[in-house]
Amino acid sequence: MEFEIPNQIKSNGFRLNDLIEIRPMQGNKRTVKLNRTKLDIKFQKTYSPKWRGDELILPSLTGEAQAVICWHGPVHKPEDGRFLVKSLKHHFFKINGTWSREAWVSRGDKLSFGYNELIFKKSCSLEIDLFEKEIESLGEKIIHSEMTILLEGETGIGKSSVAKRIHEASGRPGEFVQLNLGALNRNLIESELFGHKKGSFTGANTDKVGAFEFANGGTIFLDEIDSLPLDIQVKLLLFLDNQTISPVGSNISKKLDVRMVFASGQPLHQLVKKDCFRKDLYFRLSSQSVLKLSSLRNDRQKKEDALNYFLQKLNIELTPTLKTFYLDYPWPGNLRQMKGHLEKKKIKSGENCLELDSNDHSLVSLDIQGQHIDEFQTLDEIKREHARKVFLQAGGHIGRASSILGISKNTLKSLVKEKACLSA
């Protein structure tokens, strides 16, 4: 049965791909996108909320209530539909403080089921979508499983953000714990990971709980796994096999429930050939789920999405010439470099609308020879890249750049493939 949608709901109603912020009676708060037309809400005596496809499970003391959020609208025009929430077992809920059993949902509404709250928000934050493609490529079965995940990608591409998104989407009740192994003291890595007992080594004045125990029930993200010493790799492999740890100086094993996500700064298979990484651990990691994150220079759409996100977050605008410059620049440092450059440029200029200047020209002169190159470039690609660099260094001035290169304006235009923002 189709409902007639009230006019006020049509204008401000909650719709497909909007966001739900879940504030449970216990467990961690999280935000999810409602990209399906029906969501069953159930209650169980569980520690934290779980999002499983078409089902949202909320913690409850009684486990009795049940509700559904249904989409209503024309089949051929989903953007015109809106959502209705309805109790299914004669229980009442509160919407903006008022008791109800059935109600249309608007953006900004607060829905209360006992001590659980759902807040409905407009999908206006690009942060939610920045890694959406990568998360969706894993698939819900893998995200909700215990499977180990290995993230591969260049530095600064957002591996830690993706790992955290995986944890949030998995619905695991425990904490998300992140460790950069490359930044840890080599002699203390085992203690940081597995903890230690008092007196187990010089300076161990008290018992220490390690990162794995902190992450019990949740997810641990180990960045730069290639930095892990070979002897600690053995203990990590044992944990992957039996989910137990033994703190340094202890003979007692502890059974834990920890989901593991890894990232490497170098290709692990190359380290195996150099005997710098254990072959058995490599096969253990690579045989599970491997997610490759594309660099900005190889994914123009990701580059544009990232640029728009940072512009929104920093509340700045770009002139058309500067935006073209940024979209043509390869950003070898990926998201981290883009964010840092925009923050510095905003502070230095003191303006909200940024123009192309010497700070941007300095990007082109950065030495990126050490960056990973996926394949050899053709001579034509090298010519185009050089022409584009000179064009950018010339401030987007087609006449000046063509004079430096000793070629005609039309030849330069064909090399840089620029259709707009070319100054004569």
What is the third-level CATH name, the topology of the largest domain? Rossmann fold
- Report the span from N to C terminus: 63 Å
The percent range for helix content is 25-40%
Taking all residues together, what is the mean pLDDT?
83
CATH class group of the largest domain: Alpha Beta
Outline: flat
Which architecture name of the largest domain does CATH use? 3-Layer(aba) Sandwich
Low-pLDDT ranges: 367-376, 418-423
Largest sheet properties: 6 strands, antiparallel
Number of strands: 21
Radius of gyration: 26 Å
What is the CATH superfamily of the largest domain? P-loop containing nucleotide triphosphate hydrolases
The total domain count is: 3
Tally the helices: what do you get?
Answer: 16
Cross-sheet strand order for the largest sheet? 2-1-12-11-8-9
Task: Report the β-strand fraction as a percent range.
Answer: 15-25%
Description:
The N and C termini lie far apart (63 Å). It contains 16 helices and 21 strands. The protein has 424 residues and is an alpha/beta fold. The chain is flat, with a radius of gyration of 26 Å. Mean pLDDT is 83; it is low at 367-376 and 418-423. The chain is 34% helix and 21% strand. The longest helix is centred in the last third of the chain and has 16 residues, at 334-349. It folds into three domains: 7-121, Tumour Suppressor Smad4 (Sandwich), CATH 2.60.200.20; 132-292, P-loop containing nucleotide triphosphate hydrolases (Rossmann fold), CATH 3.40.50.300; 298-416, no CATH class. The strands form five sheets. Strands 2-1-12-11-8-9 form a six-stranded antiparallel beta sheet, with no helix packed on it. Helix 10 packs parallel to helix 12.
